[in-house]
UniProtKB/TrEMBL annotation:
It comes from the Bacteria. It comes from Romboutsia maritimum. This is UDP-N-acetylmuramyl-tripeptide synthetase. ATP binds at G113, T114, K115, G116, K117, T118, T119. Its cofactor is Mg(2+). Residues 335-462 form the Mur ligase C-terminal domain. It is found in: Cytoplasm. Keywords: ATP-binding, Cell cycle, Cell division, Cell shape, Cell wall biogenesis/degradation, Cytoplasm, Ligase, Magnesium, Nucleotide-binding, Peptidoglycan synthesis. Belongs to the MurCDEF family. MurE subfamily. Residues 26-79 form the Mur ligase N-terminal catalytic domain. GO terms for biological process: cell division; cell wall organization; peptidoglycan biosynthetic process; regulation of cell shape. GO terms for cellular component: cytoplasm.
Length: 499
């Protein structure tokens, strides 16, 4: 593609005459020097850790001659330097141009919020697929379309990857995209040139605040709110304390959903139910001109909110109501409140709750099903703030009957260090706790000691299939470990029965 076509809509100055850049043909764009080749543009980004300008020479040595820069640097004379105010912003527009603006040809649904992004995006995709819209998903669990999946580094990928994924999906017949839009993604201009049809706001609570993330809660909220300036239509949880702020700052039309406050789509007559392989909730969904019954096989109030967001998307896209109701009934997400049908006498759940707020929300939800004992196995990420550990510990020690403290991506930190921080919350609490830093042994112990009526939640790892230890992702499948342990326990029980 011609360089000037890639630079279309980007303000820049340059160190050569116009004629020289007019005819340049570009093979591809790279923001990492190690990916550069002859014919590429290198976009130098001032990162959180290093300044990409430092690697321009490396890109040059790899054959690259066109550079998008924020400031001048020394390079050989044949280097073409294009100066922009903000390289990330330029990368976003250049990537959209290079991939020929695929998001304009797709229906893109973006979900933002502290909790519920992965769940809602996956529900949306299941329901829209059932309704015949071929839908791709982009988020924490990776990318999925037409049975193909790929891992992603970020929940919301960098703009270049994002437009590349859109293009690949579009060319494979995908019509809709259901994607997670993290506040970090908005802050780093990864979605600036995405043409969103729908924006969803699930909820907000303090999270991702600190060095390298958001300086304040207000900054975090403002980042999320920006999505409603990029979309044509907004869907907002009216029960959230900050919903009015989001609506006030939106530039699109809005539909609201709720359980408590008056809104466009309301859930009422809520009933919680428990089956051997699922915990679910049914409710009546009230809309302007009537109501209809819904069931979702995931427990708790938060599952209703997630379902309402999906219902609102379906209304906007005019999905047949019966198809939507049926698809919602069986919608499930890998590692999100996933009930494993392992033991006939106890309920085992794998979940991704890894901070105080989400752990509290899932534990309070499970308590509504009156377990004999609520047992929570969890740890906390190494190298992060003590506050996260305290919040997790405080919640578990208040809500559980037994906690099993173990490792969760310790990385370079000693797992016992993290566990000892969490254990402080149990001093003076009625909740018993056991320490087992080896997560495999901890899972086995939980399964082996499960009793009639217990509810056991393995919190934190969710969909992850690794344990991050000293910078390396060591394969670790919590579900497989639990399954093998359960098989062993059941076989032993059968042996004693027939002995
Ligand atoms: C702290 C942070 O946000 N980092 C993100 C950022 O990397 P960075 O700015 O730190 O990059 P850097 O390492 O300083 O490098 C600067 C530049 O030099 C380049 N470079 C570097 C080395 C080299 O040899 N050659 C070279 O050209 C790099 O490619 C880069 O362009 O830009 C990268 C590309 O977009 C991201 O992958 C990376 O996300 C990291 C992995 C991360 O963990 N980010 C978190 C905070 C995040 O974004 N999380 C949200 C979810 C949470 C939320 O809700 O906000 C997410 O969407 O994932
Ligand atoms: N709408 C919701 N409100 C509160 N908690 C929720 C909601 N939906 C799911 N959860 C809980 O939070 C956990 C994370 O949910 P999910 O992965 O959907 O959120 P997310 O926004 O993608 O989170 P993260 O940024 O941590 O990846 C779930 O496993 C569940 O326990």
């Amino acid at each position: 593609m011609k360089l000037l076509k890639i630079m279309d809509g980007i303000e820049f100055t340059y160190n050569n005459s116009f004629n020289e850049i007019n005819d340049i043909e570009i093979k591809d764009i790279a923001y990492n020097s190690l990916k550069c080749e002859e014919g590429y543009i290198f976009v130098a980004i001032k990162g959180e850790t290093v300044d990409g300008h430092k690697y321009a020479q490396n890109a040059y040595e790899r054959g690259c001659r066109v550079f998008i820069l924020q400031h001048d640097i020394i390079l050989k004379e044949d280097a073409i330097k294009l100066f922009v105010e903000d390289s990330r912003v330029a990368l976003s527009k250049a990537s959209a141009n290079y991939f020929e603006n695929p998001s304009k040809e797709l229906k893109v649904i973006g979900v933002t919020g502290t909790k519920g992004k992965t769940t809602i995006t996956n529900y949306v995709s299941e329901v829209l697929n059932a309704a015949g819209f071929n839908t791709g998903v982009i988020g924490t669990n990776g990318t999925f379309y037409n049975g193909i999946s790929e891992k992603t580094v970020n929940t919301t990928p960098e703009s270049y990857e994002l437009h590349r994924i859109f293009r690949t999906m579009l060319d494979s017949g995908v019509k809709c995209i259901s994607m997670e839009v993290s506040s970090g993604g908005i802050m780093m201009d990864r979605v600036k040139d995405v043409d969103f049809d729908v924006a969803i706001f699930s909820n907000i609570s303090p999270d991702h605040i600190g060095p390298k993330e958001h300086p304040t809660f207000e900054h975090y909220l403002d980042c999320k709110t920006k999505l409603f300036k990029l979309a044509k239509h907004g869907i907002v949880n009216a029960d959230d304390e900050y919903s009015e702020y989001v609506i006030k700052n939106a530039t699109c039309d809005i539909e609201t959903f709720s359980i408590e406050k008056e809104s466009d789509i309301m859930a009422k007559d809520i009933v919680y139910s428990k089956e051997i392989d699922s915990l679910g909730v049914s409710f009546n969904c009230g809309i302007k001109n009537g109501e209809f019954p819904c069931y979702i096989c995931s427990p708790g109030t938060f599952s209703i909110y997630n379902a309402l967001a999906v219902i609102s998307v379906c209304r906007y896209l005019k999905v047949d109501q019966d198809i939507m109701i049926n698809a919602l009934k069986s919608a499930k997400v890998n590692g999100r409140v996933e009930v494993l049908p392992l033991l006939p006498y106890a309920t085992v759940i794998v979940d991704y709750a890894h901070n105080g707020i989400s752990l509290q929300s899932i534990l309070l939800t499970l308590k509504k099903y009156n377990p004999k004992r609520l047992i929570c196995l969890f740890g906390s990420v190494g190298g992060r703030t003590e506050l996260r550990r305290k919040e997790l510990g405080d919640v578990a020690s208040k809500e559980c009957d037994l906690a099993i403290l173990t490792s969760d991506n310790p990385d370079f930190e000693d797992p016992m260090n993290v566990i000892n921080d969490i254990a402080k919350s149990f001093e003076g609490s009625d909740c018993e706790y056991i320490v087992e830093p080896d997560r495999k042994k901890a899972v086995e112990m939980a399964i082996e000691n499960a009793k009639e009526g217990d509810m056991i939640i393995f919190a934190g790892k969710g969909h992850e299939t690794y344990q991050l230890i000293k910078g390396e992702r060591i394969p670790f499948s919590e579900k497989e470990i639990a399954l093998n342990a359960a098989k062993k326990v059941l076989a032993e029980k059968e042996k004693t029965l027939f002995a």
